[in-house]
Amino acid sequence: MVNTIKRTIRIIQSNYPSIRGACVFTSEGRIAFQTENMQLGSDASRLLQVWQQNQKEFTIKHLNFVTALRDKNSFVGINPSGATSIICGTGRGTWYVAVFVPMDVDKTSILKECQRAAKSIESTTSIFSI
Questions:
Q1: For residues 12 and 99, is the Cβ–Cβ distance under 8 A?
Q2: Which among 8, 24, 72, 91 counts the fewest CB atoms within 10 Å?
Q3: Strand 57-60 to 63-70 pairing
Q4: What is the pTM of this model?
Q5: Does 128 score more than 70 pLDDT?
Q6: Mean pLDDT, rounded, for 66-79
Q7: What is residue 81's predicted lDDT score, i.e. its pLDDT?
Q8: Domain segments of the chain: what residues?
Q9: Is 2-125 in CATH node 3.90.870.10?
Q10: SS3 call for 36
Q11: What pLDDT does residue 59 have?
């Protein structure tokens, strides 16, 4: 189970080398996999809360973010100081894939990739297997 998730994230990172950190978590905020640069911990639940409550400003890992995009399957937050962005995508709202990327990268492609990865994980891994 974890190997499947890890492989999915490694593929995303190889396709987009600008990704600085990645985390996979469930709709309950339970983390299944995270890279060293994105140890979200309780911030996974915070991300879900920001997304569901349509909050405009939030803090993750001691960084301030402003919501730039939010819809049913995707979420993008940008750091006002210009350092980094957080991108999160889901398929059916069961598994979520979040990544940290620099501000100057193509967020649209990475966002679509996060959504595809979440859909892939949803089709192969049960949230009850964590």
A1: yes
A2: 72
A3: antiparallel
A4: 0.92
A5: yes
A6: 91
A7: 86
A8: 2-125
A9: no
A10: helix
A11: 93
